[in-house]
Amino acid sequence: MAAVNGDGAELVRIESPKLLLVEGESEYRFFRFFLENLDTTVPVQIANFKGIGNLKRVLRALPVRPEYPTLESIGVTRDADKSSFRAFQSVCSLLESAGLGAPDAPMVLTQGKPRVAVYVLPDCSSPGSLESLCLTAVACDPAMQCVEQYVQCLEETARMPHCISDKARAHAFLASRPKPELRVGEAAEAGHWNLDSQVYESLKSFLLAL
Fold first, then answer.
1. What's the CA angle centered on 31, arms 54 and 181, to 5 degrees?
2. Does 130 have pLDDT greater than 70?
């Protein structure tokens, strides 16, 4: 499914009946590539709201757009960070403040028009991020053993446990690829995140249901 490019955090114009809001540039590139490999007939417009601090403004701008009546569904994604539940509740609060429907649970579409659904990365239940999901998909890659040895060294020898996160692990993993400077979204485009893995099934279901 080809994704329709968005207009960034300002959402200057709604260009498709299906809209997916993502948290950053890397997420934008990841989802654009991910959607291109899904089989559906209606394109999804992807827009980067450029950080959770901007989401309230972006959501409130939607209902006043002249194209808003054409909008059938809205998907919102964000990282769980430390708590998937709190991240979901945060998005629901912002949706309600914008006069939009708030779903009862992650991945559940609201009734009415537009329908609204929320996906909290990595899997709508665990703490973490998009990087956490991608790392799960490459858990059997031989390089991951080296990554974990590096992490262990930081924790035990360098005494730097505060440096360890799935974002750091993802950077360490990508350092094993031919272009180590790639970010997560670029790495998806380069084929490094094993997008055929079963770990993406719930995310695929969420996107196809929009």
1. 90
2. yes
